[in-house]
## 1
Amino acid sequence: MDNDKDTPGATAKTRILVLDDEPIVCKRLKPAFIKAGYEVETFTDSEHALAAFEARDFDIVVTDLKMQGFDGMQFLSRIKEKTPDAGVIVITGFATMETAKESFHKGAFDFIAKPFKLSDILEAVRRLEAQKAGGGAA
Amino acid sequence: MFKLPRILQRRAPHRPEGAEGLRSLFVKFRRILDMNTRVLERMAVMEQALGGDSIFDQAFLDSSVREITSHVHQVVYSLNALCDERYVDLYDRYVEIKNILGDILAGGHGPLASASALPASAIRWDMESLVGARAARLCELRGRLELPAPDGFAVTTTGCARLRAGGGERERAMLAVEREARALDERMPGAALRVEACLAGPEPERGQPRSVAVETDAEGLVAALDRALDELCAQSPRASQSLDAARPTAWVRRTVVAALRGRVRSMAREAVPGVGEALAVDAAPAGDSEALERFLLRRTYPFDLLRSEIRPKALAHKLPDGRTPMTPLSSGLWRGSALLAPEQLGHLAEAGLAAERLFGPPQALAFLVDERGEALFLDAAPMVASVHEAPQAEADDGERLAEALAAARVLARGGLAAQSGVAAGRVVHVDEDARAEDFPPGAIAVARRACPRLTRVLRRAAAMVTEVGTPAGHLATIAREARVPALFGLAGALRAIPQGAEVTVDTASGMVYEGIVEPLLDPAASGAELFPSDPEYVTLRRLLRFIQPLRLTDPQSPEFTPEHCRSFHDIIHFSHERAVEELLHIGKRHRGVGAVHTRRLDLDVAMDLRVLDLEAEARGDGALSGEMAPGDVDSEPFAAFVRGLGRKDMWSDQPVGLGLRDLMRGMGTAGAALSADPRSMSGNLAIVAPGYCNVSLRLGYHFSVLDAYLGTGPNQNSIYFRFVGGLADATRRARRAVLVARVLEALDFAVESQGDLVMGRLRLVDGPDAVRALVRLGELTAFTRQLDMAMTSDSAVDELTQWFLDAARDGDEPQGATAPSTEAP
């Protein structure tokens, strides 16, 4: 974050939903996104996350893949069914070529393997914002 | 004793012979090298995760342990396959450590869980559930921050449970307690002891006792423990419901006579208008808590006093530091009547903020000032239960932060965070020779290079920024250990961040702002960091304790055995050293495999060096004969070393001056080594492979060993250098060892010395830096060939060290100078 005038979130804030069943990931991503100028809600179970997504407008979704209940891949499908242009970034500690391919096939914008640097996820979010601002499909 | 799997027991006799056997041995050796590199790399990734720059979860810890365990198993297996199962004991160590790691991943403490009592030096933050929060924090203040905190020992939750169980269990705990009490008495003789019993685990709720204290002497210690535990359990609702669940523990220390007692709060309860958050210090004379004095200070160096409430005193009143209000100070001012002098307040503020950096949330530190005027910290507790339970930077806070950042002027941006965090203060530029004593505590250090010699400066700094360096280096590890925010590799930092300026550094974002950006310093804005209170941090640190430390560094030591391996690092290092030794004795130990092919290296200096090319041997091309040029060897680390070795101005051709004593000594010790035939694999030999070399040299009566890996990134790069011996008397050999040690330190090696033995290790460095270090080692090898003879005085050490470093600085191009004469006067 810096004093550039075109800083993301400087005017209308981008809203981000984070879903990860590991509390540590939510605990750390939330303040990082807030510091970068975004509005954030975090969830550790997919049912509540989906309910929130259906009830409120989110610009970007960051989701884990392997979770209790319905997993991240199903969550991604449900989100895309409801809002096809939702921007989704997948984060996972079990990254394989197959899961990456499937994520992209289902419409994920990016696929990031854990552990990842904070700067990596912020960069992915900024690219996604830029793409959405440019009118491209997420 | 661990038994070999049956499959191994059955298979042992088969051993391929001839060329196939030879190739098989080399393949096993290469496998040990490869696995070694992979373990070191994964180990580095795990350690760097402590810095908070990456997001990880339990799955990362599980997979890291799984991967490392598998590689270490392959190392142990390959070593035994290479050495005819001579190191089967190593399986025992491997299995033991593997089981410990499994226990830690499942939430356990490993072997420490069974200890009844632990000395302060063995206690770390992540043992809070074993020894209680107070002991864990005090020992971290003492060990990691080097703050004055009492020596002592903890009776663990296990020990307390045993004491209360009675019978043999109680006897066992009593023995452990008595042993630790005797050890404390040896470290710190005295009579009076203080027992502080508390419950392990979360901080007690408001209104509940944090601890129960009982004073005693050594004889009455166990009875005092019983009484303190009884009282604690009677007072605590948690303990009265279930003693097992409450997990009582006790901290035992010497009593101290206090002249004054007080508390530092790293963040005052209320912000100061126009300034923002402040730091508070309260103090009162011992036994007169009514006479409390309060001080509010800025949270950044030099911790300006913002407000104070001081009780009036007579001009002749003797203050706790032994002075009176009218005592003149070196500044020309009078001491004043405050209980705490300005420099004491500065030290307390610095300690409070260092504790906050280390533990995460703002801290309250209880302290006393003894009759000699020295402060001692007696307790540290978070001001909120957990930083994550503190109000998050939501809505208004987020808005305030965004506005502040938008308005702040950026002085510099970039670099990589070695340790995440935010700090603010005045900038002090430092160079590699900076003395820590001259560095103002709590200032922001800005330096050219992140070199290990800045370790003590870093420990005093609120944050460090360097132009050159990476999160993989040694100083980065120190930053993570002390949790000092560190931003390395920020190009142009010295120019962009001026000396004396007040700045705010946010290392996770790679930003340096002009002035103090208060909203950024608010702990609520820093939740993205990884804190010691996070379970993943605790688990990672516990795991690393059995993975990372390397204690077996000297292969000549009698303790260099499988049974002394205490970590996976010890195991892989032991295996590597023994594997190299096996290759050096391949002719004797593996008679069936036929001749080993080494080729003489065509060097333009007076030295016979033979090369064993593992790649060629594994391919079956080893029979190539004749000399080989340095360019023919496919090994980057070896090529770099040879480049330095061949630097002619480092070779002195002057005759050495020998005394009778030297000659007599030389006849007895070095003669046999020098007469060895290099073709027997016991002379100067380099074992090389792509990205690896091991060079054993007997040169000018000293032995040196270089073992180097160069991989695709800093985490794979590692250089080990060992130097010992010589022909001169012990004093001159020791002087040469000092020179070698100083040069290695200048090259950023971690160095251990003993007599004429010097061992240096350089890890986690960028490729170009590793290559530069290898060239320097080649030059050093040439330069020190017979240098012990010239070490006739301590001043010769200084002079020759300087000559070498100056010549080395000139780079690979010789400048026409030649090495100074090694002729002794």
## 2
Amino acid sequence: MEIPKEIISILSKLNNGMVWIYIVSFFVIMYLLISLLTWSFIKPLKYLGIPTIMVGILLIIIKLVSVPIVSLLGESINIIKLLLPVALKPLLLSGILCILLGILMIVLYVIINKFGEKQAKTQTELT
Amino acid sequence: MKALKIIGKIFAILFSIIYFLAFSLLMTIAFVTNLLSGDYYASVLKNVDLDTIKISECGKLFDSAAVDKDATVEETLISVFTKSGIEEKTAIAIIDNKEIREIIGNFIGDYVNYKAGGDEPEIKRSDVDKVLTNPDVVKAIGKTPSKEDIDKVYIQLNDFAKEIVEGGANNGNSERNNINIIKIK
């Protein structure tokens, strides 16, 4: 199966770090939208943290599953077995990075939330 | 007010689902665009032992080149060099050097870009010069390669790379036809 030239052309235009700019701006837009909807600047950490962990898990699953699947389907098994683990290494790294980022977001949310609750409690006790 | 809160929550969940789908897509695109860069292929080639891969296991990659299908990639590359008059130990030293793999990797990346409408790929003379004057290669050969030797490697490497990626400009009728593989092990 050959990838159409148009798709390769679009992908090569997206090269040079442009995709990362899209990812970051998309994240910022989603964060602002969710904070508007929930009227909280902390809650998006929870709403975006969970999907980020899920994306990380998905990327790791793709990495782990693709080698045995391609080995089952591929004709030239040896070359694929040799090249695929190296070729898919960035996928594993991105997956781990996403999981860590997601966990960090949720931990941050829990800490800020608890801190806020404590402060509110002490304020009500004072009044 | 409570209804508004519930609606806000529902939309927030909806947005996080959209975020999950779009983020997965963007991450996949980021990975695929990586495949279009020369650095990526260079790093893949650097981590692969060419002596364990047979030509017959490379799928269609070497179909156009007139090479022995039972030989390994390393043996084939050494034969490509020795055919052009380079000493065998020089050829082995070149193939063992990691920099040559970087050059080939960059060539493959450039070829993918070329297919997407970029410039025609070419292995640079300065890169070959850098590999052959590398202290490890010089030490393995026992002397600094002559300008003629560098020219030979440059022409042969470019010819072979183009034959592989372009499907053989002269359909395997080149003077390198039926390369005799030298078993190095």
